[in-house]
Amino acid sequence: MCSHYEGVRDAQVLRKVFQVEPPADLGKTDLWPGYPGLLIRRPREKDSGDDAVPDREALPGLFGLVPHWATDLKICRSTYNARSETVATKPSFREAWKRAQHCIIPAQAIYEPDWRSSKAIPTRIERSDGRPMGIAGLWSAWKSPQGEWVHSYTMLTTNADTHPLMNQFHKPTDEKRMVVVLPESAYDKWLVATAERSDQFLVPFAAEGLRVGSERD
What we know:
By secondary structure, the chain is mainly beta. The chain contains three helices and eleven strands. Helices cover 8% and strands 32% of the residues. Strands 1, 2, 3, 4, 5, 6, 7, 8, 9, 10 and 11 form an eleven-stranded mixed β-sheet that branches.
């Protein structure tokens, strides 16, 4: 599971790689559950027939999905990852899944604990080509008691017990998990996919496409 990642805060990277116009608030660089980050989704107005509406938009949002029935934002501390096997039935995620509220989470790297030395060593994982990751996620909008709308998101994960790289992380007795890193060619397809077709995107990213990265410059 991924509870820590490095967001993309370079406006030019967001424009070039993710083809979105960055919002004024780019969120934090180091993100943990409850921190403000970015989500990329298909604009709600895209289906209106207005050609001026872009195919993708970037919005500020909290890392950790806040379902409409939540009473406060504390729930995001435990809803930052959604298991692909149970996302359709879990109360926190099932509405966003049913409505196909798909998003892409731009990340320069993720961090996972390496326990092979018997201690949890935070390890940076990035794409082998150095390009940012587009992680498959779900988004939600929550209305606070004060009437303010808050967007939030969760990362989808899949089993990684047999993944040559990602099965090295987490405790030896734990199930191995990894976030769903989308190929860039699948970005638009994911954003428009129906709930019935969503499962086909939830597959592990090839091991050769990932590497244990160096510290940030």
